[in-house]
Amino acid sequence: MTGIWWEYLSIFTASAVLCLILTPVAMALATRNGILDQPGGHKSHESPTPYLGGLAIVVSFAAAVVVAALVERPESGLDELVVVLLMAVGLAVVGLADDLWDLSPIVRLAVEVLCAVQVWAMDEGVRMASGDLVDLALTILWVVGIVNAFNLLDNMDGLAAGQAVICAGAIFLVAVGNGQFLVAALAVGLSGCALGFLRHNFHPARIYMGDGGALFLGFLVAYLGIKLRFDDSVAGSFLVPVVICALPITDTTLVTLCRLATGRSPFQGGQDHVSHRLVRSGIPVPIAVGLTYFGSASAGIIAYVISRVDSVSAWLLAGLVVATAAGIAGLLSLVPVYPESGRRHFRFVEHRAASERD
Question: Does pTM top 0.85 for this prediction?
Answer without folding.
Answer: yes
